[in-house]
Every structure is written in structure tokens, then in C-alpha cells.
């Protein structure tokens, strides 16, 4: 019997078994429902993410713009600080600032000025402290006194900040550049801290050198009777430097006239040479009878007159000094004990508070006169607190000195002041006395005035002070002698200072208050090092930190969603 399953053919296939129609319908619905739910969720999440992205993007953009603006402002501020004065003086007494009046003057300056400081800017304070103690006998015992030197560096830099036509340069005294400068200005003995102020106006260079005593005010200290020292009391850099700038940028040369017609001896050659070197135009008026003095002259000079002036000539001189009520003129007078008395001219001087006596001065203190020359003696500056001429003078030496005194002023408008005087051991001897003359008593010894300034002042219609000067020297040897060539003596210094004042050289009509260090302050501690540190922190570090924090916050907020 045959088996039926022998004809059964088995076929392998991968085909899926077909489901029933109702099963297919249910699965299709489920798929559509799933797809619909997905798109519904996607659409809702997309809209939400778009809103979040839009809000976050705006925040990031605004933050980035603000930070970019801050960086730009900081960079611009740092750049502008190199060209303009953007510093703030945070001291209560403005000790690191210059006056508004001075700022206006500096900004209007239309001439190139060079200020060369002997020393290095970084080491100026330390070295000045050393030289102050060892050369000038100034004791530096506190940080506040050291700050006066730091203050100088700060104030000098402001001149360039306000006007880039003023260049400030420091030169190392050990450099070849300093050697070249000492050669160029060989007539000046330059030391550490000196400032050389120069300008070329009208094709000729004018020079003014500021020294330690020009810049700093000292006060005497009597704490040690065996060692006389002083301390720093104030900084007058502003007054000294602005006056020097006014002097070297003076467009017009000052004009002086020498009234030589009454002088038998020519004692003005050295004086004329000194004036020419300082940009003066000099005219010689040799008339025996003075009938007119032109107002074009800023000052007139009378040196060792041997012939007295008559009344009409003295009227001409008086009218010249009055200058039609405008004043602004000067007279420089040099006496000579070898000349005869001049009663008319001396009477004129007495109206200005200057009394000239008869005779010749002898010095009875052997330590104050040349050996075997009692008429050749030391003369000393009067310690005046409010006069910048006497503050920077040393001893002078002269011979043939006429007895001279400040006397009672003849009017309220005239004030006479002694600038230099003898010791109290001087006596007046008769003309022609021998070197061994000793016909005097202790009661005859007294102090005589050797340089006298007389000021005739008034006010104009605009309430501006106007002045005329008479500068009287008791000896022509202040300028016409070998002593005038000694740099350690003040012969030339006092003559030139008085001449400049009489001719109103560098008269800016401005007065500035000396800077006094009274307390510690943040501003006084600012230096180049911590300035750079502040610059780096505010221009780079802070902006970078803020940007980094912004990025971190943004990323964390985004990941949280």
C-alpha cells in the first residue's frame, strides 16, 4: 500500500505569513497614531526651543556688545592717556595738580620748548634724596619729604600732557648724551636734578637752568647745634618752570639803554656781554645831558657815575619810570666808592627808599675779607620768604663798596627791600683810607645793605598790578670784576636776576601756590608699576573674566533645558 505523504513537496521560504484583514487594519491605525503623536510633540518642542533660543540669543548678543564696548572704551582710554592728561588728582590739597591759570597758559603756548632733566625718571626721587642730603644739607627723614621729588616728576609730565609742543626728556648723567649737553651749555655747571629749559624763538636759542633751590623750598633746622641742616618745606616747580618757559619763549628781546654820558670809566663791558648772552638788545646813550629816554627801553642802566645829574635829567628819569602812569620800567644802578658823591642823584634814590652814604666799607672780621684786603668782603643774601631771588643766592664778593641802607619809603606806593647785605662787622671808612685803617669803635660796626630792590606799584583801570623797579648795587664789582666769573659766587646770579626783574623778563602776571606735602594719599602712591597693573586688570582681565562667566552661564542654562 502506497503512502500519500510521499508526494508532499516541502518548500522553504522567508515570506511572512499573511495576517488576517482585521489585524492589518488595527496595526495601521496604531502606526498613524504614533506618527501623529511624534509630530505633535516635535512641533510643540520646536516652538518652545525656538522661543528659548531667540531669547537666549538676544541676551548673548547684548552681553557681547556691552563687553565689546567696554573693551573698546578701555583700549581708547589707555591710548588717549598717552596723548592727553586723563589722570585725577585725588588729594584734598591738589598737590599733584597744576593750577587752572597755568593750564590755560600752557595750552595757549605756540612755541616749541624743551625741558631736559638731568637724571633718570625711574631713579629721580632716590638720587635726589641722596644729593639733597650730601650737597645741599637737606635732611630727608620721612616719606613725605621723599614725595616732594616724586611730586616733581608728576608735575613736569603734566606740561607735556597739556601741550605736546613742550617736550620733557630725562638724561642719564653717565651717558654720552649728557657729555654732549655739558659741552653745548659749558657756561653752566649742571648737576643731578637740574632742568635745562630751552626754546628757539626768532632764530636764537634762549636757555634757563633751574637748580635745586629754584624748585624746592627748604626750612632751617636748629635741632643740632654742631650741624646746620634744613628740611624740605614745599615744592615750587610750577612757578619756576612756567616762569622759565615764559622767559625762553619771549618773542621780543628786552631792550636796555646804558646811560654812559655821566660815567668817566667804562665799567659795563662784562655786564653787556652777560646781557647779550641772555638775549638783550643794548643801546648806549652817551649824551652828557639827558633830555629824553624812549619808552621802547624796558630798563636803563647807570654804572659808576662820576658826574651828578641835574634836576631836568632826574625829571626825565622819573618820567621814564612812571611811563605815563603805565609803569613797567626799570633802573639798574651800580655805585662805585672811588667816584665822588652825587647829592642830586642820591636825593632821587632816597625818594625810592634807597639811602647812599659817603665813604667806603671796611670789613673788621678778618674771616670775611680777603687777606690784607679789608675792603674786599663777603656779601650775603637776606633770608626773605617771599622773594625767589634771594632763595637761590650764595655769597658774593665785591670791593669798593659804598655805604647803602634801606630808608623809610617816601610814599605808600614805594617799597624798598634789602636783597643782600654785609655782616654786622662792617664799618664805613673815609675815601682814601689805607688798608691798615682802624679808626673805629665797636659802636661803628653795623650791617649795610648791598643790593636793594625798590618797587613803585599801582593798579591800572582793570585792577591789574603795575610796577616799576630800581635795583641798586653798592659796588660795580658785582659785575665788573674777576669775582663775577666764579660760579660758586652769586655775583652774576644776583645781577642777572635783578636785571630780569627790572626789565620784566618772563613776567606772566601769574603766581602759583607752592605744593606742600601734608598727608599720605592714594594718589601720591601711584607709580608706573601699579599704573600698568591697573591697566592690565581693567582693560584685559576683567573683560575676559566677564565673557567667560557669560559663556558658562549660557551653556548651563541651555543644557538645563
Structural class: alpha/beta
The main sheet comes to: 10 strands, mixed
Span between N and C termini?
80 Å
Overall mean pLDDT? 81
The gross shape turns out to be elongated
| Stretches with pLDDT under 50, minimum 5 residues | 1-19, 84-94, 519-526
C-alpha-based Rg, rounded: 42 Å
Please give the number of β-strands: 20
Strand content: 15-25%
Question: Mind explaining what this structure looks like?
Answer:
- By secondary structure, the protein is an alpha/beta fold.
- The protein is 37% helix and 21% strand.
- The strands form 5 sheets. Strands 7, 8, 9, 10, 13, 14, 15, 17, 19 and 20 form a 10-stranded mixed beta sheet that branches. The chain has a 4-stranded mixed beta sheet with strand order 2-1-3-4.
- Helix 3 (124-135) packs across helix 4 (143-162).
- It is elongated.
- It starts with 20 loop residues before the first helix and ends with a helix.
- The model is unreliable at 1-19, 84-94 and 519-526 (pLDDT under 50).
